[in-house]
Structures are given as structure tokens and as C-alpha cells.
Amino acid sequence: MLYLVGAGIYDTFEMCNSTRILKSCDRIYLESFTSPISDKFIDILKTTVGPEKKIEFVKRWFVEDGRQILDESKTLDVGLISYGDPTIATTFTELRIRAIKNKIDVKVVHAASGITSLVGECGLQIYKIGKMVTMMEERQSAISVYSTVFSNLNVNCHTIILTEYRQGDDGSVFFLKPNNMMSRLLDVEKDIMYGFVSEDSFLIVLSRIGTDEQKIFSGKIKSLLELDYGNGPHAIIFPSKFHFTEEDAVLNLTENIDAPTDNTVMIKSVSDHMLNKYEPMIRNEIKQIRESIASRNSNKAQIELLENAEFYLDDAVQFFRQGKKELAILSIGYADGLVDSIKQMLEVE
Predict the structure, then answer these.
(1) pLDDT digits (tens, 9 = 90+) for 58-82
(2) How far apart are CA 182 and CA 20, in angstroms?
């Protein structure tokens, strides 16, 4: 049988059910690639299960491969311990499904989750949490985080941004610093320019949640960039518009530097950006084409196409004002297509 056992988020091991199960296991594996496991927790775990139980520390590849764990679980009781709640990490869900497909009994022993604790510790409402994302070192990751925050803000949802954590073969530990994350979001803003990230954006930075060294800071990016957050793990919450109870919680449950602000004030949808960018650009092209047509004595069909392109642009603006943004974008596309066809006709002439 395979037991997926949550270690919770604290440095203690207090779950009676977990203790009973692990004491009965023939094999006990402990992973720390999803999040670090403290030495204090390991010492308590060894004392709890007894000196006769060997606890094997395993790497990411061992769990992802999973074959040894599954083979042993066919005839033995195997316990796999992970940080937080084991059902949060996709690796363990995948292993659980593989076990079930192989007719192996699986029991999940739930524990406190680091994810829900991030939300609860700063007093946010869980049903206002949008899609979660992780910031990695590579540049593409920052773009993905930026896009996720943008999408969440459009539906007034907070974004949890987890930070990269990894262990080196030499035992070294790497945590991506919150300062680095914030700087990279500002850099992406300079490139994409959706206009919702600035030094005045209000964030919540959470470090080492569940430990005695837990710290939670809140404030504007320009204030948070100056702080030293120490060792990880870290997470950042990019909030949307606060409910008044959330705002009160942030003021009282975090080390608050700046008054909470509404990050949705500057948000515009993709359709907003497209209309603001392409509508004036296409109108300018129409103006240039009209001048070219006048000098060439072009035929009536070209003039009619040009007029139709202008009508589509007018429709786009009208649809946008009515909140029919999909129709607005379609109209922009039709106008752009007509303008391109006229330009090609003029090139042929």
C-alpha cells in the first residue's frame, strides 16, 4: 500500500494519524524538492517513528520516475512524506493515479497546506484567489507571471506568485529573492506596456510561512524593493481590489509600509490595448492611402473599399463603447484586412 503523507508547514510533527501510519510502514521516503524540510522537523520525525525505522531522503527524479515506489507498494507499506499537503503538488497526484491504475491501494494523509496558509496569514478571502503561478529564473517565466497577473486582475482576482526553489547536487539551496521578482515584473512592463505594473503597485511579500522566522510585508513595490527578506521560501501576492475586510486584515496582520491601494485601477483588457493601438494606426494608413488614390485617379472600387474600412473602424469604436469587445476586435480585423488589400492593389498598379 502507498501512503502519501503531508508534513504540514510547521517544524513539528503532531498528527497522530500520520505517526501511526508511518510507524507501520516498511519503507519511508522523505522528499524536499517541492519545499525545504527543516532539520528540526527531520529530528522530530526520526524520534517519532523510532530509531528502528530508516527514513530515506529522495530527490525529484526518484519521485517523478516513481517505479521503485510503485513496485515496493505492491507488496509493502510505503510512506512518502512531502511538505504541506501532498495533493497540492502535481507530481504526487500523478504518482497516485499511476498507483491506482496498477491496482495499488493509496491513502492520502492530508496536512496544512502552504498555499492556503499564504492566503490565511495575510487575511485575504480564499474565493478571490485566481490562477497561481511560479516565478523561475529564466526570462520567459517573468512574462508568464506578468500575463497571469494581468488575466487575474481583469476578473478582480488576487495572484499568488510562488518563487523558484531548488536543491543542488552539492546540497546547496537556491531561493529566488522577492526583490528579483519585483524588478523583473517592472522590466516586463517596460516591454509589454499593459500599464498595470509600476513602482506604486501594492504587493504582499511572505517569507518562511509556518516557521518561527515567518515574515509578511506589504506595501508598494518601490518600498518593498529596499528590504532584505532573508532565506526562503518566499511568495508574493499581487492583489486585485481589496474587500474592506481584506484591507483591514492587511493593515493588521502584515508589516505594512504603505496604505493598501487598488491594483485594478490601471487595468485594461487585451481588447482595450488592441483598439487603442490599431484603431489610430489603421486610420492613419487610410489617410495616406486616400492621398495616394487622389494623386493616381484610382478606380471606384478602391475608394469603396477604403470607405468600408472606415465604416468598420467606426463600428469598432461603437461596439467598444457598448461593451461588445469581441465585435470591436473583429471589426478592427476586417478594417485592417481591407486596408491591406487596397495597398496590394495599388502596388500592382
Answers:
(1) 888 888 898 999 999 999 999 998 8
(2) 44
SS3 of residue 26 by DSSP:
coil
| Rounded Cα distance, 121 and 253, in Å | 7
The CATH architecture to which 270-348 belongs is Up-down Bundle (1.20)
Q: How confident is the model at residue 149 (pLDDT cuts 50, 70, 90)?
A: very high
Report field, pTM of the whole predicted structure over 0.70: yes
In this structure, whether the domain defined by 116-256 belongs to CATH 3.30.950.10 is answered with: yes
Residue 296: per-residue pLDDT: 64
Nearest Cα to Cα of residue 83 among 63, 111, 107: 111
Q: Which of 178, 183, 138, 140 is nearest to 161 (CA)?
A: 178
> How far is Cα 202 from Cα 23, in angstroms, rounded to an integer?
47
pLDDT of residue 114 exceeding 70, the answer is yes
Alpha-carbon distance of 196 to 286, in angstroms, equals: 31
CATH ID of 2-112, from 3.40.50.720, 3.40.630.30, 3.40.1010.10, 3.40.50.1110: 3.40.1010.10
The count of C-alpha atoms lying within 13 angstroms of the C-alpha of 274, restricted to the half-sphere facing its C-beta, is: 16
CA 22 → CA 8, 18, 30, distances in Å? 15, 6, 11
157 and 240 Cβ atoms separated by less than 8 Å: yes
Distance CA 178, CA 126 (A): 22
Q: Say if residues 113 and 84 touch (Cβ distance below 8 Å).
A: yes
